[in-house]
Amino acid sequence: MSLSSMSMLMPSVGIWEYFDFARVGMIKTTQAIDSAINSMKIFQSHNPELVATTTSPHFFGVAIALVSCLLVAPIPEARTIEVLFGYAILNFVYLGSFLMTQSELPVIIEYWLLPNLTYLATCVILTLIRRVFISPLRNFPGPASASISNHWMAKELGAGTFSKTVRDLHRRYGAAVVRTGPNEVSVNDAEAIVKIYSGKYQRGSFYEGGKLRGQAAIRETRSQYHHTIWRRIWDKAFTPGELKHYAAQTENATSKLVNSLKKKSGEEVDCTKAMDEFALDLAAQLTYGEDAGIQDGTGIETHLESIKKYLSWLGYYATLRNISELLSYTRDPAVLTTYCSNSESLLINRQRNHPDSHDITSHLLLEDEESRRKFQVPLQLAANTNLSLLMGTAVGTTLSQTFKTLSKNKKIQEKLHKELESHIKKGGDLSTESIKPLPYLSAIITESLRLHNPFTTGVHAAIGEDGLDMGSYRLPPHTQVYVPTLTLMTDEKYFENAEEYIPERWTEKEEMVKDKRAYVPFGYGIHACAGKQLAINELKLVVARVVAGFEIEGEDDEEVEWKDYGMVRVGEWKGRFKSRK
Ligand code: HEM
Description:
The protein is an alpha+beta fold and about 575 residues long. Helices cover about 60% and strands about 5% of the residues. Its main location: membrane.
């Protein structure tokens, strides 16, 4: 019986009736234990040689473990709390009954502690046997430790190395499907995208760990019912009219960035820091109507650091579904509290000081016209506005990687500069609207989103109860699956010279894109990026204005730290932005 259905019984049954139930249970178990021990003793005296096997307390531990593994194994995503609750209740009744009849320590150890230890050890062994030898995923290649436990994946995500490791595994095995968890596979197949993400399958269990203060935002909710309603609310924040409104704010913020780069013309600038701070301030401006004060030093100094720490923490725990489920019943760890409270302070400030601000939050406060439902204030609203802020920072990561690439590719830089110059000569300006049709600028942003995408892990989904037949392979029912974006978008099968930054593949060298279905920088299907056009507008504007105003230089061979915690964070990169005459 599930916890929720148990709690439904609560109001109709008095608490004393539960005690009575436990008391009767204990008496009956006591009688059973007594007669079992007596029969064992009789059996022992008649068959001393069989004692070790059939009547040993270990035998019961093994037998019960077998039964419980058989019962639990077929349940997809069995709730940890329910399994532990069932185990604790049974043990409580068993131990209580024991203590009513037996007070000698050796007997308690022999008939309670030992069977428990045997039970737990057997469960572990049976689970390992099932995962390695019986699982329907056993024939897919993958690291042995990944088939045994999710800890392999958690470790990779927590360390920020996951996407690259998965890409290397696909290349090493030359396989479309690689097993990266006991019940999880990575599918590097453009054809699978439509089938997995069109809306038939639920989000993967991975997203449960992403709840903030117990609340899922639109990206994390696994309920398709809630998602449909929430998505309608979110989409209202990105209509063409709203995008025009955000464009004006983006243009102001970009002018400020360009002015500050001009002041440091020719000097070494930590470009990653500059772009991260710009992106966070802009995201706060668009979400809460006021920037986060990061660039001018009035905001929370550690805000960006808290995002990085949170992402690394999340990468580790979100993968360990059982642990993240149990953590949801405990106090939030400091890393989560700090992350939440930094953005919540921006929301509180907005609600207090300018509640009528025209921003993304103003839309998230409205109700969905079809269902008449809205986000509950404050926690659901806070989780969703927090997501808006977090997604906004993805723009910064893409920008700093783009500028580093341009610094190494003078030809590309100059070609773009020429396009911008001729646009201005023809009377165009560097506004969001005016630069939209520029083909080379668009090609640069498209290529950056392929090679410098901030979401390289892939979107997790849970295959339904019929499984998914892809012809050359089959994904069994309830498999957790993802299409690894980094692997896919750098695969020679889909892009010629896939590791190289070649904007022309999106203009005159179309043959270099072998299969467009593999280009999914904003995800695919019902959960695809809601802020896609906003992100593209921001990227285009900043790249256009910076390249129009500066020559970008940097050390050619400088290795920049690159970490993927479910969202990419890049380390320090020093560039020089030299003002053009
Ligand atoms: C370079 C910038 C960006 C990229 C590459 C990007 C990419 C993505 C991707 C791949 C997803 C799907 C993630 C998943 O399902 O786990 C997503 C979801 C989402 N993005 Fe973006 N994003 C960017 C910027 C933004 C911005 C600026 C916003 C504005 C607030 C935004 C809002 C959202 C929202 C609300 C979702 C969840 C949609 C849903 O679950 O229905 N994104 N984005």
